[in-house]
Amino acid sequence: MFSPYGRGTLLKTFLLCTLFAATGLFFPGSTKILPPAIAAVFFLFALYFFRDPSRTPPREPNAILAPADGRILLINEISHPFTGPESTLVSIFMSPFNVHVNRIPFDGTIQHLSYHRGTYLMAFDHDSMNNNERMEIGLENSGFRIFFTQVAGFAARRIVCNLTIGEGVQAGSRFGMIKFGSRLDIIVPKDTRLAVSEGQKTLAGKTVIGIRNI
Fold first, then answer.
1. pTM value?
2. Residues 30, 79, 182, 197: which is the catalytic one?
3. For residues 104 and 120, what is the distance between their CA atoms, to the nearest angstrom?
């Protein structure tokens, strides 16, 4: 299954690869095969990048799910205007080889959406969370608030987010992607029991980031 967010990119990539492969007709001898071979590898990688596997969220009550595939770069206690004091920031780095479709971490209603233009620092640079192009999303469920941010990186310069203010969402559902590698930061409030550690790999809609304390 391929992500609908990548259809336009895949079509453009296919056309460019086809044109590049056709240049092989003008190459001498056995070198004719080089452009088609390079084009095929490039297009196969594009197909691989836009894969979108089906996933069933865990049934654990009050579980906060990872919004992205990748590896946890940073866990830090912070104060945030949306989630409050003593919140916890969890930063997930996505390499070009991870699935890049992002998923909702918790049932609730979208209360905040804010797009910011910015720079394109490397995604593993912690300054990128504040300086890079990004889409900020705030979700609320009966007073319990979660804030998560799609952050563009050095190569990833296309953020897709199809959410709207007031929209009801379910944990594990798809909501967008960041094309060609980057990071996703999620901030959970203090009444959350964290269930992950730095360096751990995550799967969007599957890995439990933390549990809401009730």
1. 0.86
2. 182
3. 24
